[in-house]
Amino acid sequence: MKNTPHDNVLSSSSENVNRVAPEQTLATPHFDEESIQHARPAVPLDRIKKPRFWPLALILMCSFALLGGVLGLALARYEKRAQPTSTAAVTAAPEETPQNESREPLSSPVTNSAKQTNDARPGVSERNAAPTSVAGASAPKTGAVEEKAMSVTQADDARATLRDAFDEWIAATNARDLQRQMNFYHGSVNAFYLKRNVPRAAVRAEKSRVFDHANLINVRAAAPGINMSRDGRAATMRFRKKYAIEGGGEDRRGEVIQELRWVRTDDGWKIVSERDLHVIQ
C-alpha cells in the first residue's frame, strides 16, 4: 500500500514530537539558616507608606519667595542709585526789601584792599541797622501809631536831597569853607573816625585845624550808595573817596571807602557819623 502525501506529513510530525526534550523539573527552594537571617519580612501592599513630597515642595516655595524678596530689594536699591541727582539748587527766598530802602552797591567796587583802619569794619547787623537815634532828630511820638513806610516816590526824593547835600559837603571841604561844611553836622556826632560820641564843637575844632594848616585840599568822591531806613528818617551813605592834603607839614594822600550816616531833623538832613570803613591805598 502506497503512502499518500498526507500520511507523510503525519509521519514527520510524529517524529518531531518524539524528538522534544522531556519537561525539566524546577528545583525545590531551599532556605538555610543564613538565608533566613538575611531575608526581609514580607509586608502587605496596603501597609507600604507612599513617599510624601509636600514638605519638600513647601521648602522650595519658601526658598524661592525669600530669594525673590532679596532680588527685589537689591534691584530697588540699584535703581535708586542709578537715578540722576537733581541739580536744581534750592533757591533761598530773597530778603524782603522795603520799597523805600536802597540796596545800591558802591559806585566803584573795592578791589585789592591793602589794609584796614583801626576802626573795625562793621558787622552785618551793624551795617543793616539804622543809625542810632540822636536828640533833636525826628522820631515817632510816644504812644502814637507807628507811621507807615515811605513810598517809592518819597524814598527817591529823599535820596535826591541827600545826594545834593553830599555834593555840597564835598565842595565845602575843597573850598575849606568851615561854616558851610559844619551846617551839615548834628549837634552830637555818634562817631567821628576813631572817636565816639563827639560833640559838634569838637568836630569843628578838628576841621578848623586841618583847614588852617593846609595849602591845598582836593577831595574827589564817587556817587554814593544810599540805604534808607523804613520810615525814611535815617540814611546810611557809603562812597569811594580820594583825597590829597598838602601844607602844614602834614601832606597826605590816599583812597578810602567812607561812610556818612544822616538823620532827618526839622532843619534838614544832618550828619551823625563820619568814618572810614576801608583804606584802599
Would you write up a description of this structure?
With 281 residues, the chain is an alpha+beta fold. The chain is built from seven helices and seven strands; from the N terminus they run ααααααββαβββββ. It has a domain at 150-279: Nuclear Transport Factor 2, Chain: A (Roll). Strands 1, 2, 3, 4, 5, 6 and 7 form a seven-stranded mixed beta sheet that branches. The longest helix is centred in the first third of the chain and has 29 residues, at 54-82.
- CATH class term of the domain at 150-279: Alpha Beta
CATH topology value of the domain at 150-279: Nuclear Transport Factor 2, Chain: A
Largest sheet: 7 strands, mixed
As a percent range, the share of strand residues is 15-25%
Termini, distance in Å? 167 Å
Number of strands: 7
Rg, nearest Å:
57 Å
Helix % is 25-40%
Structural class: alpha+beta
Q: Assign an overall shape.
A: rod-shaped
CATH architecture of the domain at 150-279: Roll
